[in-house]
Amino acid sequence: MILITIIFLAYIIDLIVGDPYGFPHPVIYMGKLISFEEKSIRKSKINKKIGGFIIWILTVLVVFILSSLIVEFANINKVLYVLVSSTIICTSFSTKCLAKEAEKIYYSLKKSSIEESRKQLSYIVGRDTSELSREEIIRATVETVAENTVDGTIAPMFYAFVGGPVLAMIYKAVNTMDSMIGYKNEKYKDIGMFAAKLDDVFNFIPARISLVTFGLAAIVTGYDYRSSLKIGLRDRKNHKSPNCAYSEAAVAGALGVQLGGTNVYFGEEVYKPTIGDKKRSLEAEDIIRVNRLLYASTAISLVLFSIVYYFLISIL
């Protein structure tokens, strides 16, 4: 039961505090470590695919050792353990932060500031935003919130229930590596291959869980839950990633919009199949709607994971 309490507390802290500016977030230091490793590998004569494997192993090992030591130290006192563990797990969540970044784009669009909207969007996506139209900005924002609901909260929450704060941090390291080097373009296709593959493995179960939680979230928020599940099942494979389309398709169905299509990453055009049926055109309010689905889906995930965890520890 103590783990359920810890994760509930972590989720509440994230909803209240989010990621405050200036906070020494673990992801910052993970990013610095990954950047140092990448530069070192590129300067060496090591095969880039082998180098990518070394980056993955070293990063996970460092995160495992440091987070284990912190948790073990905190275990000298029950209250301290709960506070430290909930804080660590909280840093693996990004529910409020993701919603806030999406809201910034929404408000800049409402002010008809297309340049500001492109700038704000560039902070949360990897694609080129410099030439995006208003509707493309909205589409990119909705897609990003849908996808990162999994990466940012559902997946780390899942691993927190499986292995506590240490496994939640390891997941965060895996996901950070993918976001930094896991691209399939010329620069990263070799050195980032292992990071991308392992991120797919880690997200395999959480992505499929999101299809259910977004469907339930559509009921709670009053959107089209039938279409959410229908489109989610129909278009769940309409993506080069084996995981991303699950959450995007569920959101597209719930909102009655179409996502996907061609994007530009690092100067290269990347075509993505369309997801969902275009029952209507995307509008700025869809950013607010997807944020509601974000909050509802993550809260529902917390309740479902808690029930399953309690049931399992009761019978084991």
UniProtKB/TrEMBL annotation:
Cited NCBIfam families: cobal_cbiB (TIGR00380), PRK01209.2-5 (NF002281)
Pathway this chain belongs to: Cofactor biosynthesis; adenosylcobalamin biosynthesis
Localization of this protein: Cell membrane
UniProt keyword list: Cell membrane, Cobalamin biosynthesis, Membrane, Transmembrane, Transmembrane helix
The name this protein goes by in its record: Cobalamin biosynthesis protein CobD
One of the record's GO cellular component terms: plasma membrane
Highest classification ranks of the organism: Bacteria, Bacillati, Bacillota, Clostridia, Peptostreptococcales
GO term, biological process aspect, one: cobalamin biosynthetic process
